[in-house]
Amino acid sequence: MTPEKAIEILNGYITNLTKFSELGEENEAIQVHRTAIEALERQIPKKTMKIKGDWTDDPRCSRCNRLIKGGYRRIYCPSCGQQYEEEVKEEI
Ligand SMILES: [Zn+2]
User: Fold this and answer.
1) How far apart, in whole angstroms, are the C-alpha atoms of residue 68 and residue 20?
2) Cα Rg of the chain, angstroms
3) With 70 as the cut, is the pLDDT of residue 69 above it?
4) What is the Cα–Cα distance from 44 to 49, expressed in whole angstroms?
5) Could you tell me the distance, in angstroms and rounded to a whole number, from the CA of residue 49 to the centre of ligand 1?
6) Cα separation of 54 and 76, whole Å?
7) Which among 2, 37, 48, 49 has most CB atoms closer than 10 A?
8) Minimal CA–CA distance to 8: which of 30, 40, 55, 48?
9) pLDDT tens for residues 12-61?
10) Ligand 1 centre from 64 Cα, in Å?
11) Rounded CA gap, 51 and 27, in Å?
């Protein structure tokens, strides 16, 4: 199963859990599903980002903004664990 499919299924559970929770408040079960989704999202490769006017040419993690020196050689952000597409830089 791909992370994308697992996220889709977990979001379906969140929808159902929200229907049955009182006043739609976030209960522990919903929070557990959201935490799982966040972990799965980090397995889906994202583009690193470059910020116009940044003091460095190194790309940054698009999730936590950490500098990734020689980013194309790393697969994961050492801070948050986000996976990257190799050799892709997105300028913002
Ligand atoms: Zn990061």
Assistant:
1) 43
2) 17
3) yes
4) 15
5) 11
6) 21
7) 48
8) 40
9) 999 998 887 776 567 888 999 999 999 999 999 888 888 889 898 888 88
10) 4
11) 37
**Can you list the alpha helix ranges (DSSP code H) found in 21-77?**
28-41
The pTM for the full model equals 0.71
Which tokens sit at 51? Answer: 């910020």
Between CA 42 and CA 40 the distance in angstroms is: 5
CB 91 within 8 A of CB 52: yes
Whole-Å CA distances, 19 to 12, 16, 23: 11, 5, 9
CA of 66 from ligand 1 middle (Å) equals 6
Q: Does residue 7 carry a pLDDT above 90?
A: yes
Query: How many Å lie between the centroid of ligand 1 and the Cα of residue 13?
Result: 27
How far does the centroid of ligand 1 lie from the alpha carbon of residue 20, in Å?
A: 35
The rounded Å distance from CA 80 to ligand 1 centre is: 4
